[in-house]
Amino acid sequence: MAMAGGAQSLGRVLVVDDEMHLRLFIKAVFDSAGYETATARDGEEGLRKLKEFRPRLVSLDLMMPNQGGIRFLTELRRDPELAQTRVLVVSAIEGETFRHSLALLSAGTAPGRAGSTPPGPDGYVEKPPTAETLLREARRILGAETPRTAGEGQSPNPEAQEA
Fold first, then answer.
1. What confidence score (pLDDT) does residue 46 get?
2. Is there a contact between 64 and 39 (Cβ–Cβ < 8 Å)?
3. How far apart are CA 43 and CA 67, in angstroms?
């Protein structure tokens, strides 16, 4: 993928966050590292841009107005054309609380069963993120690209919290 000035892009990243200062910070981090980026203010706008922009990675906030991150992630994972997109959750929700919430959402559902909870995110970073933490998690996620299967999804990465 070529960028302006003939430089090669590392891939596309969609940043979905309702907080403008964080959205711009995360965009700047990925831009400066060589990624091509786009942004969205909430999950609803994010899904529209996801279908147009086709990123390799989505940086996703969870708590947003209109449509939050959990609903965005659920819709993304259930769409066969988008399900392979990698997702890095960037949220103020503490990592252990987030893992507990995901466990509650999937309680009582069997993998592959109609209506079951789709796979979770590929990575997790607590707000406020550092540039180093964002890029380390993105590289880890994108460096390990393999096809997803139902019920797959990595737990939030505790090492990603250290920055």
1. 94
2. no
3. 5
